[in-house]
Amino acid sequence: MSDAVSPLAVPFPPLPAIAGVTPRVARAGYKDWGRCDLTYVELAEGTVVAGVFTRNVCCSSEVELGRQNVAQGQARALVVNAGNSNAFTGYRGREAVEAIMAQVSAHLACPAEQVFVSSTGVIGVPLPKDKARAGIEAALLAEPCNWEDAAQTIGTTDTFAKGATATAMVGGVKVTLSAIIKGSGMIAPDMATMLGYIFTDAAVDPAILQQCLSQANLRTFSCITVDSDTSTSDTVLAFATGKAGNPVLASFDSAGADAFAAALEQVCRELAHLVVKDGEGAQKFIAVSVTGAVSDESARKVGLAIANSPLVKTAIAGEDANWGRVVMAVGKAGEPADRDRLSIGFGGTWAAREGQPLADYDEAPVAAHLRGREISIEVDLGLGEGRATVWTCDLTHGYISINADYRS
Amino acid sequence: MSDAVSPLAVPFPPLPAIAGVTPRVARAGYKDWGRCDLTYVELAEGTVVAGVFTRNVCCSSEVELGRQNVAQGQARALVVNAGNSNAFTGYRGREAVEAIMAQVSAHLACPAEQVFVSSTGVIGVPLPKDKARAGIEAALLAEPCNWEDAAQTIGTTDTFAKGATATAMVGGVKVTLSAIIKGSGMIAPDMATMLGYIFTDAAVDPAILQQCLSQANLRTFSCITVDSDTSTSDTVLAFATGKAGNPVLASFDSAGADAFAAALEQVCRELAHLVVKDGEGAQKFIAVSVTGAVSDESARKVGLAIANSPLVKTAIAGEDANWGRVVMAVGKAGEPADRDRLSIGFGGTWAAREGQPLADYDEAPVAAHLRGREISIEVDLGLGEGRATVWTCDLTHGYISINADYRS
């Protein structure tokens, strides 16, 4: 964890324990730092898993193996290494992941593909196998820890620990979700990495869990951006132990399926927002709401074009209601838009409607809104029913300092 | 022109006059500034024109009309307004452009569609018709000016005047190209705008001129980026008066067609580089060379993903040979790439080959290279024969200061 905490930081919430889930942390010493850096989570027999992974084609071995192994749907353990991302390390990096999977599967007497591994930190250096082995041995002997310890241990350049929780009634039974995430602080020479883990005691078919996670991902993690750059290691995994004793969610027609999906999406949204709130140099949290697009996906792309625009993000940093830059970003998104139907507002006040600045535009409420920490930008394309909200942070001197002023 | 000149500035070169081209400047007073802000270039009868325009769908009326009128291939005048972009101003903005076209075409007794207009500056405010009219009247009475005056007058937030020239032998006759450009400095609440004008005395069929310009554009203006944002007004026009007396270039089989195309591309490349060298906050000029892609277009897209990555650009600002960030940018480009075939170098020294850091990587020459003003990044994808070079600048505190510290 870094010293300077983000001004957008949120206190770590009380996160319930999840039956069948036992987190432990240990010190593998991947870096020369006085903190735990290996997280080991043991999962009860019968736990099912779903996952979403980075689309970066230069992904790490952890992502390759995770994407492959999530397909079989069962999980017994999660290992997260902090301080070394093991990315771009060729066959030696892959061997290090396979060694961890072999060690843990031998301990649990389970197939290796039920052991999921993530790594985050410096790239280009193969994860040291001896440190990983000793770290896991230490974790197996450690007392179980609480969620905040686990959230802190998976962190690298994060400035605060991040967690979220939700419950849902499934067939008359309360199921609970507890989740932690790290990201997206980056520090040279490392890359941004978002690693998120959701644990629930719900009984759910792995295919349904995967569908719920994929859908939630589209509206949450796929709708955030800090700087348009995409880590080679981004991973979100959901684990369901089934210990709540609810009737198994075997289809979307099952009682409580909607409630479970909504709870999962809520947790994903909270986690996604926390990542943005720890964006490098972030001083303001920005929600970009796009309506009137030809489709939801088109709205999402327009929203991301706005949220990734350095000119929009610096304008918000400067508390400047620069709707012209929003117009520019809409126009370059590559999606259907009509300059003369476009309306743009800030904090609920329209600045321009149907392609022209409002004659009676009242800048006072907009200026007051922009001085706050939570900013909203509203864009109505005036074409259809498609809508989406994406989230980002402003682009500040802090971002440059973190990413440029460092020398390797 | 701004006070603080870019450290990458290039002195304005000696630019030959072009027979049949008469530039003049005047003070329209679009802003409250003590400088000329209207450029009027009269073109001899028989001048042909070609153009390339922004792909931003929220483009200005100038761009809409220019794109439409360039199709008829003839031009008699160019008017460039600085200080007001006339973008996002609805029908009133369009009326202002049409008024300028009518005024000039009446003066020259030519069709209105042979008058080309560009505007750059503040958005959302219709170009004041009275100021434009008086400015053009003043320009018509003014003495002809030199290219440097014209280059300065089309500029807005540019920190230095930009020009380029070349010659070619066409059928035993020397033809000359002189060209000026402005961009891409931006100033809140304005947007980046790149406006470039190439004048030649060559005799060339308008369709051939358009093909030459479109091809050159693909390898020059379409290969530069400052911050990934796309102006609503970007325009490059080429005018050919035919006064050199060369045999008309009527096809690519004509004698000298290749030489003319090469000269045009050279001028476009020089202009494009000058725009990058005046990028906001730029301290370093970066050339990204991509080889081994599946196609030239794929190589260009990979190059732009690298050149647009805030993490890569801040690493160069920090003089950090952060090849991992280049890997990340390659992977997110959405183009074919294989992590384990990828090689990355800086200034001609490989840092990573075939997916792994070089064991004997010598960082000293790379560190020395990165301390310079002109940086090269080499990426070999190891897949095919496609190649491209794109150019950008680093991302510095200066960019944030220019774009965020300003308050409207």
From TrEMBL, chains A, B:
- The UniProt record lists the EC number as 2.3.1.35, 2.3.1.1
- Known Pfam families for this protein? ArgJ
- Name the reaction it catalyses: L-glutamate + acetyl-CoA = N-acetyl-L-glutamate + CoA + H(+); N(2)-acetyl-L-ornithine + L-glutamate = N-acetyl-L-glutamate + L-ornithine
Sorted alphabetically, the keyword list is: Acyltransferase, Amino-acid biosynthesis, Arginine biosynthesis, Autocatalytic cleavage, Cytoplasm, Multifunctional enzyme, Transferase
Coarse class of the protein's main subcellular location:
cytoplasm
UniProt site (Cleavage): 192-193
Pathway where this protein functions:
Amino-acid biosynthesis; L-arginine biosynthesis; L-ornithine and N-acetyl-L-glutamate from L-glutamate and N(2)-acetyl-L-ornithine (cyclic): step 1/1; Amino-acid biosynthesis; L-arginine biosynthesis; N(2)-acetyl-L-ornithine from L-glutamate: step 1/4
Q: Where is this site: Involved in the stabilization of negative charge on the oxyanion by the formation of the oxyanion hole?
A: 120-121
Its annotated compartments are: Cytoplasm
Citing just one GO molecular function, the answer is: L-glutamate N-acetyltransferase activity, acting on acetyl-L-ornithine as donor
Q: Domain of life here?
A: Bacteria
Which residues make up the binding site for substrate? 156, 182, 193, 280, 403, 408
Record: active site: 193
Q: Does the record bear Cytoplasm in its keywords?
A: yes
Which family does the similarity line name? Answer: Belongs to the ArgJ family.
What does the record give as the function of this protein?
Catalyzes two activities which are involved in the cyclic version of arginine biosynthesis: the synthesis of N-acetylglutamate from glutamate and acetyl-CoA as the acetyl donor, and of ornithine by transacetylation between N(2)-acetylornithine and glutamate.
**Binding partners and assembly:** Heterotetramer of two alpha and two beta chains.
* NCBIfam families named in the record: ArgJ, PRK05388.1
Q: What is this protein called?
A: Arginine biosynthesis bifunctional protein ArgJ
